């Protein structure tokens, strides 16, 4: 259920920026979502449709860009993209990994009218 609070934050950002720039409408919101972020994109869209009603951000298109999980292997030094269910270095099989990307969640940009 944390998606509701996250969605409210997205809407708050959009409304604040629209007001700051005297926009009459928010047309598009681009959001980056890491595969390890724990966020369910479908719920974000569903909640957004409900809570944005009656605002300048109503009917704005949400564009979610998935950020893959990438790691640095502490044993062999290789940077790799991995499947979030197979947490091993694809080169050497080590589990001594440093997460580089995959936990992100942020509003990347807005398009307003």
Secondary-structure blueprint:
Elements: H1 2-20, E1 26-34, H2 41-51, E2 61-67, E3 69-73, E4 79-82, E5 97-101, E6 105-112
Parallel strand pairs: 1-2
Antiparallel strand pairs: 1-6, 3-4, 3-5
Helix pairs in contact: 1-2
Give the N-terminus to C-terminus distance in angstroms: 31 Å
How many helical stretches? 2
The low-pLDDT segments are: none
Order of helices and strands: HEHEEEEE
- Main beta-sheet annotation: 3 strands, mixed
Tell me the radius of gyration.
Answer: 18 Å
Helical residues, percent: 25-40%
Quaternary organisation? single chain
| Secondary structure category | alpha+beta
> For the largest beta sheet, what order do the strands appear in spatially?
2-1-6
What general outline do the C-alpha atoms trace? elongated
């Amino acid at each position: 259920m944390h998606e509701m609070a996250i969605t409210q934050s997205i809407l708050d950002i959009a409304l604040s920026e629209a007001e700051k720039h005297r926009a009459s409408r928010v047309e598009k919101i681009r959001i980056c979502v890491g595969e390890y972020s724990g966020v369910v994109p479908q719920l974000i869209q569903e909640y957004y449709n409900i809570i944005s009603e009656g605002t300048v951000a109503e009917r704005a298109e949400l564009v979610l860009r998935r950020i893959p999980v990438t790691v640095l292997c502490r044993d062999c030094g290789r940077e790799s993209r991995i499947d979030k269910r197979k947490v091993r270095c694809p080169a050497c099989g080590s589990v001594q990994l440093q997460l580089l990307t995959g936990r992100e969640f942020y509003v990347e940009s807005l398009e307003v009218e």
